[in-house]
């Protein structure tokens, strides 16, 4: 998870001076059919990722370089022109970016600890021996994500799936695991980056609980067809090896990491909220526990090179998204919230959430579900999806994700309108 970073007074003064001095240098963006060129650069980057999914890292880095070069030469940044404007912009984003980096890298090691604990090997005996087994596993991921980070829930689900299906996990089921992790965190202020941002910004945690009406409905919709896909592709193997022993030391390490992250998140939000804006506290907490427990059980460091590549890819897309000129949004209506969810499939939901919070006037339960679950429709639409496809590289295909993960967008729409019908749109006043 990450936190919404607020500017310190000194920074605001500096930014005001830069804007004043550089106003003449920051020009109107180049428009194509009335759309800023920035969006076309981002769109071309996402298109390249979709088509050439074996070269996603270099495509993302090329798109980032092209976007930065364009803004340096022509339009400048929201924080000012030139390299100083870029530096100030990155100064705003560094906490979020560092948290994402540390979380993605750290949870890969956590997943390895969990996998070596022996618990995944025991799971076949606990899950039903037909298509209902994958359904139960998705339900477990959903519940875990309500109080854990959705990245951790997705990786734990992927680790268990790799064992119970003997490494043959269908891409449609991968999409379902990501969707379950994002849905489970949608109604909890400690379950997802976007809901944590809302909490930090002053939204009542009870205001987002209604998102579970939509998220629970969506789970019922996508879980069954995705599980049938998985059962037909590779059913659960029930004959677990004999003589298995659970390594409780590794289980304790996993529990310590998750409890420490949860405690740090709650404590900082309640007692030291400004600390979350200044330091990547959650990521540092996870790595502190990982390093402290390393003498007891050595982490699987050989995972780091491949995880690093996937993490840099995600961060490149996040930085590009933060550079887009999205200062003006349509009026806060349920139609806008529905659209933001669709956009979040390819556009990072962190800046979208920040803009919505600045604008005000949303029903925060709707927004939490939309931007939280909407990213599940694309493998790179959420950090949980990127983390899981680091574990299953075959999932890094937009075509296959959409072809076999079709229950997820269907579930998004059904869940949204279930919330609209059963609860109704009740926005907070413009803040």
Automatic annotation (TrEMBL):
Keyword tags: Membrane, Transmembrane, Transmembrane helix
Annotated InterPro entries: NhaD-like
Keyword GTP-binding: no
Membrane-spanning parts: 24-51, 94-114, 134-159, 171-191, 211-228, 248-272, 278-296, 308-326, 332-354, 366-392, 404-425
GO biological process: sodium ion transport
An example molecular function term from Gene Ontology annotations: antiporter activity
Coiled coil region boundaries: none
Top-level taxon: Bacteria
This protein's name: Citrate transporter
């Amino acid at each position: 998870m990450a936190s919404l970073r607020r500017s310190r007074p000194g920074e605001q003064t500096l930014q005001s001076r830069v804007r004043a001095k550089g106003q003449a240098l920051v020009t109107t963006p180049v428009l194509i059919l009335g759309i800023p060129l920035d969006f076309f650069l981002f769109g071309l980057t996402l298109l390249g990722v979709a088509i050439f999914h074996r070269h996603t890292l270099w495509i993302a880095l090329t798109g980032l370089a092209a976007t930065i070069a364009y803004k340096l030469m022509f339009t400048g940044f929201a924080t000012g022109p030139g390299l100083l404007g870029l530096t100030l912009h990155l100064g705003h984003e560094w906490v979020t970016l560092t948290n994402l980096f540390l979380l993605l890298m750290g949870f890969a090691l956590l997943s390895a600890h969990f996998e070596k604990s022996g618990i995944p090997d025991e799971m076949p005996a606990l899950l039903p021996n037909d298509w209902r087994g994958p359904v139960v596993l998705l339900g477990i991921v959903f519940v875990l994500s309500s109080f854990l980070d959705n990245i951790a829930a997705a990786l734990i689900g992927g680790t268990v799936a790799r064992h119970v299906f003997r490494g043959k996990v269908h891409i449609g089921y991968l999409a379902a695991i990501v969707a379950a992790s994002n849905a489970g965190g949608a109604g909890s202020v400690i379950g997802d980056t976007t809901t944590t941002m809302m909490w930090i910004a002053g939204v009542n945690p009870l205001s987002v609980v209604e998102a579970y009406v939509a998220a629970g409905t969506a789970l019922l919709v996508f879980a069954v067809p995705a599980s049938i896909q998985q059962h037909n592709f590779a059913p659960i193997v029930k004959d677990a090896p004999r003589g298995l022993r659970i390594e409780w030391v590794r289980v304790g390490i996993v529990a310590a990491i998750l409890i420490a992250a949860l405690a740090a998140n709650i404590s900082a939000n309640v007692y030291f909220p400004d600390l979350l804006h200044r330091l990547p506290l959650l990521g540092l907490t996870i790595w502190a526990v990982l390093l402290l427990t390393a003498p007891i059980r050595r982490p699987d460091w050989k995972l780091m090179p491949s995880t690093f590549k996937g993490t840099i890819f995600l961060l490149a897309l996040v930085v590009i998204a933060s550079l887009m000129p999205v200062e003006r949004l349509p009026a806060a209506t349920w139609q806008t919230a529905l659209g933001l969810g669709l956009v979040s499939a390819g556009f990072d939901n962190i800046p979208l959430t920040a803009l919505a919070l600045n604008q005000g006037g949303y029903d925060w339960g709707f927004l939490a579900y939309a931007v939280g679950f909407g990213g599940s429709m694309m493998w790179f639409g959420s950090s949980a999806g990127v983390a899981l496809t680091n574990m299953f590289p075959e999932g890094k295909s937009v075509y296959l994700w959409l072809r076999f993960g079709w229950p997820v967008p269907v579930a998004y729409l059904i869940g949204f309108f279930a919330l609209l019908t059963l609860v109704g749109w009740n926005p907070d006043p413009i803040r």
